[in-house]
Design a protein that fits this description.
Shape of chain A: flat
Number of strands of chain B: 6
Oligomer: heterodimer
Order of helices and strands of chain B: HHHHHHHHHHHEHHEHEHEHEEH
Number of strands of chain A: 0
Largest sheet of chain B: 6 strands, parallel
Shape of chain B: elongated
Radius of gyration of chain A: 19 Å
Structural class of chain B: alpha/beta
């Protein structure tokens, strides 16, 4: 991947992120912040490769901490986002059935 | 290992990795898109989760990797701890938990940078430079600094919201010190870039200064502003991940990190706007330092009322608007409040919940807490929808909210919250405030609403008060 291609990716991804959030109702801000927090847990793959290429003990220690933290970011971010959105589904269903009275 | 990478079979592995990362990027973007509507939100996280799973599994196939046992051990330990903590955390504590997980991501990005930079530094000391381009080195340094700031800053944000740190530390020359720490970190970074890694001491200095800056920058910020700060650190972590993605030549990291970086920046601005403050104001002003006490003194007195009287008042009202705040959630009163509202609805009373954009501790946090209690969407109204309705309401029931209903925000130019959009609860015929004691709010500002002629104070714990109201309404017959 050449530098200019990487810049294109960077620019297009930046617009994408902006567009996704721009029309979000306030009620979803917290879950969405949590969801985007989960998405940057992708740092896990970088940390895996960094630890996978580590040679010296120092590199291994830092790499290990990196993977540990990244896995925490990804898994923790997923669990709390899922828990929050779970409740939104429930209240949506209740609204439908409760519409009668 | 070296000769294996030349084998044609591994070219396929590389291709599989690239295609899988493309799929991951697609799943992430679609997932976030689905999360932006209440109808599809639930499936959004599943899409994004599938993307993460694909990316993680396929990364084991990277050519030339070793230390598999360490990688697996770290993933297993990190996942179990995070899974357990994420399942167990109360909904009220969600903001600081997000801060904590976000800090971990920032720390991981900094760790990637540290591995690369220390390798370059030791190689340089041994007179065998690794030969990274200046661009790659710069991105590693900048991503590392941002990640380290996000890491230590998020930890402080977590500690503050969790109540581990109660004080906001402020002293003269603080901004100067912060500036010096940040510029110092950057300056050492420039040296490391120019000298191909320089030496391990310089690399350590970059991270040390950046970590200190994250702490020093977050400590003076008041608790009420912390959600904006957490959102900012979320965006910063995204950016750090994107930069380290350039270093690792990893498209999935670049795309996901950048999407989060820009989405998070916008979200941060929206939050700051909801509080009627600019981001610079949140980060660099002394809001909530107690200086607000000099504002115009509030005259009048607080008039108490009994729960039984409030129960009768609401039972025979035609319209009640509930204004919940974070205090309600802390007291775990939302279930009792909803039970009370159901009784009123059964009696034919129109009940609505008025949500301020920053009710709770993050925009939308209160909606999550009410959803947890089972309150349907259509009863929940935001500031713009509900403000005109207060004039027709017989009772505005304030429970656990304070600054967001303080009318001085409309009238008193000397007040620190002047100009902040508020819920016009004071326009209701009767205002009932459920409050634990007589103290001021989160921001330390006296609330003029409590002293109005049409306001009555119902003192007590939120949950207990709500339970008393339930009984009072039942007794009203």
């Amino acid at each position: 991947m050449t530098g200019i291609v990487a810049l294109y990716i960077f620019m297009l991804a930046a617009f994408t992120g902006y567009e996704i959030i721009a029309k979000v109702p306030v009620i979803l801000h917290t879950p969405l912040m949590s969801g985007s927090n989960f998405v940057h847990g992708i740092v896990l793959v970088g940390a895996m490769v960094a630890l996978g290429s580590a040679v010296t003990p120092l590199e291994k220690i830092i790499g290990f901490v990196g993977v540990l933290l990244a896995a925490g970011n990804a898994v923790g971010g997923y669990v709390v986002t899922e828990r929050m959105l779970e409740m939104f589904k429930a209240s949506g269903a209740r609204k439908k059935t409760g519409g009668g009275h | 290992m070296e000769d294996v990478t030349q084998a044609p079979g591994l070219f396929t592995a590389r291709l599989l990795i690239d295609v899988s990362y493309l799929l991951t990027a697609f799943l992430f973007i679609m997932g976030l898109k689905r999360m932006s509507s209440p109808v599809t939100a639930r499936s959004g996280i599943l899409w994004a989760g599938a993307g993460m799973l694909v990316a993680t599994l396929v990364s084991f196939l990277y050519p030339g990797m070793s230390n598999y046992e360490l990688i697996i051990a770290a993933i297993v330990v990190g996942s179990i701890v995070a899974w357990w903590s994420g399942k167990k955390v109360a909904m009220t504590d969600m903001p600081q938990m997000i801060a904590l997980y976000n800090g971990m991501g920032g720390g991981a990005a900094a760790a990637i940078a540290a591995v690369e930079l220390y390798r370059a530094a030791f190689a340089n000391v041994a007179h065998a430079p690794v030969g990274h381009s200046a661009v790659v080195m710069s991105l590693a340094v900048v991503g590392g600094i941002i990640g380290a700031i996000s890491f230590s800053g998020s930890l402080i944000a977590w500690a503050k919201l969790q109540g581990v740190i109660n004080k906001t530390l402020r002293f003269g020359g603080q901004k100067f010190l912060n500036g010096a720490l940040f510029l110092g970190s950057l300056a050492v970074g420039v040296i490391v870039v120019v000298h191909q890694g320089a030496d391990p001491l310089h690399v350590s200095l970059i991270f040390g200064l950046a970590l200190l800056f994250g702490v020093a920058m977050t400590l003076p910020i008041g608790g009420a502003d912390m959600p904006v700060v957490i959102s900012l650190y979320n965006a910063l972590t995204g950016l750090a991940v994107a930069f380290e993605g350039f270093v690792m030549n990893n498209a999935a990291m670049i795309i996901a990190g950048t999407v989060v970086g820009s989405a998070g920046t916008l979200l941060t601005q929206l939050m700051a706007k909801a509080m009627n403050r600019s981001l610079a104001n949140v980060l660099f002003s002394d809001f909530g330092s107690g200086g607000g006490g000099a504002a115009t003194a509030v005259s009048g007195s607080m008039k108490p009322i009994e729960a039984s009287d409030v129960g009768v008042m609401m039972a025979f009202a035609s319209k009640v608007i509930v204004v919940p705040g974070y205090g309600m959630a802390v007291a775990q009163a939302q279930h009792k409040v909803w039970e009370m509202c159901q009784l009123l609805i059964d009696r034919g009373v129109t009940v609505k919940f008025a949500i301020h954009p920053v009710a709770g501790r993050m925009p939308g946090h209160m909606n999550v807490l009410l959803a947890e209690a089972g309150v349907p969407y259509d009863l929940i109204a935001d500031l713009d929808e509900i403000n005109a309705e207060f004039e027709t309401a017989d009772v505005a029931l304030i429970i656990g909210a304070n600054d967001v209903v303080n009318p001085v925000a409309r009238t008193d130019k000397s007040s620190p919250i002047y100009g902040m959009p508020i819920l016009n609860a004071d326009k209701a015929k009767n205002v009932i405030v459920i409050k634990r004691g007589q103290g001021a709010g989160f921001s330390g500002i006296e609330n003029a609403l409590f002293f109005l002629d049409n306001t009555r104070m119902l003192y007590g714990d939120g949950q207990k008060a709500a339970a008393e109201l339930v009984n009072a309404i039942k007794a009203a017959g």
